[in-house]
């Protein structure tokens, strides 16, 4: 279970860094700002969802099924 939590935390961290970089890029490339901001927002929402999943796993001490582990 600790492995899955570590993976989730890593993904959330990576997503946050990517989002910040995309917002910076969107500010620099005015022709692509709308598209880049939309992608960054989607990544942010995914990261927030993964963060909640990780918190739930940690809080409830749930061991995910092998199917869930295979997806990650």
Which properties best describe this structure?
3 helices; 72 residues
DSSP, total strands: 0
* Radius of gyration from CA coordinates: 15 Å
Strand content: under 5%
Element string (H = helix, E = strand): HHH
Number of helices: 3
**Secondary-structure content class:** mainly alpha
**Helix content, binned percent:** over 70%
Distance between the ends? 12 Å
- Residue-averaged pLDDT: 81
What characterizes the major β-sheet? Answer: none
Poorly predicted sequence stretches spanning 5 or more consecutive residues? none
The general outline is: elongated
Instruction: Count the domains.
Output: 1
* Multimeric state: single chain
How would you explain this protein's 3D organization?
The longest helix has 28 residues. The chain has one domain. It has three helices and no strands. 8% of the residues are buried. The chain is elongated. It is mainly α and 72 residues long.
């Amino acid at each position: 279970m600790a492995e899955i939590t570590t993976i989730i935390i890593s993904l959330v961290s990576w997503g946050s860094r990517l989002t910040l970089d995309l917002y910076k890029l969107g500010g620099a490339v005015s022709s692509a700002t709308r598209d880049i901001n939309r992608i960054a927002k989607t990544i942010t929402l995914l990261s927030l969802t993964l963060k909640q999943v990780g918190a739930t796993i940690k809080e409830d001490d749930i061991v995910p099924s092998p199917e869930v582990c295979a997806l990650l």
